[in-house]
């Protein structure tokens, strides 16, 4: 029943206008906490983590209880180390989602000092394109094109994720639990 309730929120969400009104009612407009807390739990990621934790054999928990481990110790010493690949995957999903978020930060954050890089890059690209169109330089301006500026901003936006991925990649290991349960 709990699964159905959680998945129901993924299929039928409130919509943009009620979400905006909720943010406004909680005085979170032009506040970074709106982006951080307002989108902190993703139903899809919740389902991935739940499925992963359900796939961990119960024999590991039973063996730890026989050895006298408390529930907290079982969580910290057994479940979390086994779940590092899934936690790293979800962390990467959240990092990419927050880094590439564009729509809601553009709607909720008004101050130029608070807007994320994607909104800044969009403004730069729109300003550059409109400026080049208004000056009528055409497709070539001193050996560069407006497409070159647009593509360079896209590459600039990808660099942090390209740098982060190799550090997280070590968690994506096949067969973490192979050999953990015998017989």
How is the secondary structure organized here?
Blueprint: H1 2-11, H2 16-25, H3 32-38, H4 43-55, H5 58-66, H6 71-82, H7 84-99, H8 103-108, H9 117-135, H10 146-169
Mean pLDDT: 82
Shape: extended
**Residues in helix, %:** 55-70%
**Biggest sheet, open or closed, and with what strands and sense?**
none
**Fraction of residues in β-strands:** under 5%
Low-confidence stretches: none
Count of extended strands:
0
List the helices and strands in order: HHHHHHHHHH
Membrane topology: Multi-pass membrane protein
Transmembrane segments: 5-21, 33-53, 74-96, 149-168
Domain ABC transmembrane type-1: 1-168
Main location: membrane
Overview of the structural elements:
It is a single chain. With 183 residues, the chain is an all-alpha fold. It is 69% helix and 0% strand. The protein has ten helices and no strands. The protein has helices at 2-11, 16-25, 32-38, 43-55, 58-66, 71-82, 84-99, 103-108, 117-135, 146-169. Helix 4 (43-55) runs antiparallel to helix 7, helix 7 (84-99) packs antiparallel against helix 10 (146-169) and helix 9 packs antiparallel against helix 10. The longest helix is centred in the last third of the chain and has 24 residues, at 146-169. The mean pLDDT is 82. Residues 1-168 form the ABC transmembrane type-1 domain.
Features:
transmembrane, 183 residues, extended, transmembrane helix, cell membrane, single chain, membrane, mainly alpha
In short:
This protein has ten helices and no strands.
